[in-house]
Write a structure and sequence with these properties.
Helices cover 38% and strands 21% of the residues. It has a six-stranded parallel beta sheet, sandwiched between helices. It is built from ten helices and nine strands. The structure holds adenosine monophosphate (AMP).
Length: 280
């Protein structure tokens, strides 16, 4: 595995690989890699000749009072995980090299960025779409792998690819969970053992909601039940509960067949998101 810090160098390598008709898979991450990330890496390795993983804690997707500085950065462990999983290139850019002095061009989805997580994190998705566009221009991947854990991000990236004519195919990968049901996340490191146990109830609440949806319970009642069930979790405050059309993230109606039920909560100070996709 080769570690590359310079985007121009990586771009040259990728141009050469594409000339040789090699297929390239890209897995963008912020590091602190866990089994969720590893599932994306494994899928890329199985579907492409070459896999590029980026580990970059992207400053422009964090709000002023968010955890940019304390975000976990176990880089030696991440390097080992990538090597062990047959990654070909690990891209580790610095802020200075990725966002030069006069950086002032952003990619922004004008509608999907403003709902759900976008309400409390107003610049977050602009940061995501901007850095992912840069990665797509550097690596020119045939496929890029995104977890359904960040469901809104996945839909926004798919929309961006369609709107801006990127050639990359977006592959959505299922949520990997702890045995308790808690969706794996680098931020779970911030939870105490007790908080993690409390947080694991979120997934059970979502499973219950899915059952209600398939049993044709009205959406408004499902939301009420989720709210009630989440309120029973110790130290849990709800940021949002949303039921939306799975493809477009438009608000679901009673006759919508494919939905995503998405929640954002805080367990004490730790913000967690989770979701479940349902069909009827
Ligand atoms: P992050 O490092 O948190 O930015 O995540 C990088 C990629 O891994 C994103 O596409 C995430 O959706 C995905 N990911 C993170 N956690 C999980 C998980 N538990 N299951 C599946 N994918 C995940």
């Amino acid at each position: 595995m080769k570690i590359i810090k310079n985007p121009n160098q990586l771009q040259k390598i990728c141009i050469d690989l594409l000339k040789k008709k090699k297929t390239i898979g890209l897995v963008p991450t912020m590091g602190a890699l866990h089994n969720g990330h590893i599932s994306l890496i494994k899928k890329s390795v199985s579907q492409n000749d070459i896999t590029v993983v980026s580990v970059y804690v992207n400053p422009i997707q964090f709000g002023p009072n968010e955890d940019y500085n304390k975000y976990p950065r176990p880089i030696e462990q991440d390097i080992k995980i990538c090597k062990d999983n047959k990654v070909d290139f690990l891209f580790l850019p610095t802020n200075e090299i990725l966002y030069g002095k006069n950086f002032s061009t952003y990619v922004f989805n004008d509608s999907l960025s403003k709902i759900m997580c976008g309400v409390t994190r107003p610049n977050h998705f602009q940061g995501v779409t901007t850095v992912v566009s840069k990665l797509f221009n550097i690596v020119m991947p045939d496929r890029a792998y995104f977890g359904l854990k960040d469901y809104q991000q996945y839909v926004i990236i798919k929309q961006m690819v369609s709107d801006l004519n990127f050639k990359t195919k977006i592959i959505g990968c299922p949520i990997v969970r702890e045995k308790t049901g808690l969706a794996m996340s680098s931020r779970n490191k911030y939870l105490s053992t007790n908080e993690a146990l409390n947080a694991s109830i979120i997934s059970k609440v979502l499973i219950q909601a899915k059952k209600e949806f398939t049993a044709h319970k009205p959406i408004i009642s499902i939301i009420k039940d989720i709210k009630n069930n989440l309120s029973k979790i110790t130290d849990c405050t709800v940021e949002y509960i949303e039921i939306r059309e799975a493809e477009t993230l438009k608000e679901a109606k009673e006759n919508t067949k494919n939905i995503v039920i998405a929640v954002a909560v805080r367990i004490n100070k730790v913000r967690l998101i989770d979701n479940i996709v349902c069909k009827k």
